[in-house]
Amino acid sequence: MATGGTGTSDPFDAGAGGILRQPKAVWATAGASVVAFMGIGLVDPILPSIAQGLRATPSQVSLLFTSYFLITAIAMLVTGFVSSRVGGRKTLLLGLALVVVFAGLAGTSDTVGQLVGYRAGWGLGNALFVSTALAVIVGAAAGGSAAAILLYESALGLGMACGPLLGALLGDASWRYPFFGTAFLMAVGFLCIAVFLKEQPRPARKTSLLDPLKALGHGGLASAAVSAFFYNYTFFTVLAFTPFVLNMTPYKSGAVFFAWGVLLAVFSVLVAPRLQERFGSLKVLGGSLVLLAADVLALGLGDHTTAVVCTILSGAFIGVNNTVYTELALGVSDAPRPVASAGYNFVRWFAAAAAPYLAPKIEEWTDLRMPFVVAAVTAVLGALVVVVRRRALTHRAEELEPRHASEDGVAVFAN
Known about the structure:
The protein has about 425 residues and is mostly helical. It has one domain: MFS general substrate transporter like domains (Growth Hormone, Chain: A). Helix content is about 75%, strand content about 0%. The protein has 16 helices and two strands. The chain has helices at about 25-40, 45-55, 60, 65-85, 90-105, 110-140, 145-170, 175-195, 210-215, 220-245, 250-280, 280-300, 305-330, 335-365, 370-390, 395-400; strands at about 1-5, 410-415. It has a two-stranded antiparallel sheet. Helix 5 (about 90-105) packs antiparallel against helix 6 and helix 11 (about 250-280) runs antiparallel to helix 12. The radius of gyration is 20 Å and the shape is globular. InterPro entries: MFS, MFS_dom, MFS_trans_sf, Tet-R_TetA/multi-R_MdtG-like, YfmO-like. Keywords: Membrane, Transmembrane, Transmembrane helix.
């Protein structure tokens, strides 16, 4: 978020406003967030193994993502309602407890139906935790919202990178072990939150179940949510369907998605802010979505080597998009951040639920290339929304348009 002035644009500056100088409560929440995000990509390398172990089809196994994100989307209407009444700390602990229970149960599944059901319960816990974690980090982090968002995106990127790696390492022995491993790590996160995080101040006004939907009445927030909906369809086509296309061992698939996650983390935390500072958020977002569309199209139409390269490369564009979309959701409207985030996530997670289900179905109806053609089209649609609705998305022009500093030519990140 660039504004004129003097200072440094390095968010990792060790000074008082740097991302690395944070209270223990922030680090505990961020650490637990890493594990929470690991749960999203954890099953990637073991999807074929799960299908084989439970004698299920790819479309049935893909329901692991669909049930998870469908419940996550619906739960977004509940998270603010709960946290504004019991407090952020108790909401985080409740979410973590649910993940521990349902991740552990997932490892005991005997049928794909049981596994899908347990993943739905896991999604409820993850929704309560992840949405509240962002609000807690933003509220408690040193250095303002810019440092907080980058810290959150760092946790997201690290979790996305480590999830497939953990899934591959544990899943090589049995597809059940990654679920037990996640339950254990989330239990550690539960203890860290319980010890280091004090109860957060509750909002003066309790959030109703309808507040996130009312927040979507703001044209800018609604536009960001719709654009993110199309983008998320592309994102989760790559995440949930590509493992079947690559058809690699858990170790090799885990290595591919680990490299993908590393690029996601680097571009979300280090590259995206610098691109925004130079070109402005909307130009960066539109350009990144178009490049993602081209990459996904090449992934689907190319040979196996091209598919591997394009899968990894997509992490770069996804990392940039994640950072810009998060900032848009938190800053484009006048709604309280938790409410705006809940409304935005309510819309976009429906695409994360739809893509894993529809991509295998589209392949069954047509051929292996068509799911990626559709995903490329949805990325372009996301970019078109940004272009057509650019006026509504520039509510905070100082965040979304590049501005140069005065005499020293330096730009800084501001709240």
